[in-house]
Amino acid sequence: MAEATDQWTIKRLLEWTTDHFNKVGSENARLDAEVLLAEALQCDRIMLYTRFEEVPSGESLTKYRAWVKRRIAGEPVAYIVGHKEFYSLNFVVNANVLIPRPETEHVVVEALEAAKEINDRPLRIIDVGTGSGCVAISLAKHIDQCKIAAIDISSDAIAVAGENIQTLAVADKVKCFTGDLLQALPDGSQPVHLIVSNPPYIGRFETETVEDSVLKYEPEQALFGGEKGTEIIQRLVTESEPMLLPGGRLIFETSPSVFDDCLQIVENSSLELEKSVKDYAGLRRVIVAKKSP
Predict the structure, then answer these.
(1) Distance (Å, whole) CA 270 – CA 103
(2) How far is residue 104's CA from residue 137's CA, in Å, rounded to a whole number?
(3) Mean local confidence (pLDDT), 182-186
(4) pTM of the full predicted structure?
(5) For the domain with range 88-290, which CATH number is right: 1.10.3860.10, 3.40.50.150, 3.20.20.70, 3.40.50.300?
């Protein structure tokens, strides 16, 4: 039987929304529509495909339509639904923290690889610019014996990280500190095996190339690393040198547009470039630097 045109079934809602998102230039139109509708219906996204002919309740439709309007206005889906998956974990996010992105998972992968080569336990790690806590918490979940200091200059970001630390049950491994890079650590802090970071690395000269939804909604302080985009990374490398144990690593994400400049910063330090890592798009994204044994 043909579907009644006045019935907003799940299938029809997804088709209409996807088409509308495409018209306004959404890069992930279908995915955005599915995530919003699944959240409105409080079900897993995959379950939408088993419920195509179902007509959502009036309450769910009202919520969904309001969210669609927010997405059309440019607000990121993760902020609308209030969470984002990263490294197979679900993180609470809001406008006080960057939205976790797949590219940053490479930092986690490299840190876990480096951890395998270090026999000391507990493994001591610092996560600089922790934001939602996604990197620190992912590492805590996969390293049995570790102690992680999660640092952010934003107390609002630290509040989000703290919530995720509690929800994901790693409070015994991860402790938060508010402050500017490694200066946030208490006096007399011990050197560590790993320092990981997704620091601000967009240069002010690149502002016009940044998506409007990022500029308008994500925290500026977590995006821009200075006029050139490397100023904070320069400080991070300098401050990391004395805080790393011999054989320890600094692992950080950066932008392909300033990658060569970041390599130069490492080469001008006492650290040795161990490797550079490409992201899923084949772009140079992560630098691993090692302190001489």
Answers:
(1) 27
(2) 13
(3) 96
(4) 0.92
(5) 3.40.50.150
